[in-house]
Amino acid sequence: SDVSVDVLGGQIIMKQLRMPQHDPALLRVQNISSSELISAINPKQFAMSGPVSGALPLWLNNEKWIIKDGWLTNPGPMTLRIDKDTADAVVKDNVTAGSAINWLRYMEITHSWTKINVDNLGVLTMQAAITGKSRVDGKTAIVNLNYTHEENVFTLWRSLRFGDNLQAWLEQNTALPQPPCRKDKDCEDK
């Protein structure tokens, strides 16, 4: 109970976990840096910056859900940048999608709301509503993006080598605490 972790420039907090679970354990996400998160995952197709906060109701022993009715939002300004090669490939392959993707090459996000569910087989369902500004060919426009995505996160993590990337990031950015000096040993101040 009452566990918090400083991670990725923000905090993840869990007030309580009771077993057996009759209610989900609520993971509060506060001001997580999307830039640090994306750097840890290391996808090549896009980059983001700005804080993310929300709540993820976590089930450990539910027959259907791992996360049910979770949500994320941006408490401050965010940016989204689609990789040039990725955007160019979409534009080349599909003219209609290409004109839309041009508005997403670089977007300043003013408001986002994402609903998240993950079933116990790893199927993630996200529904996002994003509002922001984009600039294309000297023109600025308000962009309203409604996006739904479904993907098996277990398969995705394996394909992105998420575990390897996260492990490497943790090794570079964390350190284990040093054991305290015992009275019967000479210790050096560092």
From TrEMBL:
It comes from the Bacteria. This is Dicarboxylate transport family protein. It comes from Salmonella typhimurium.
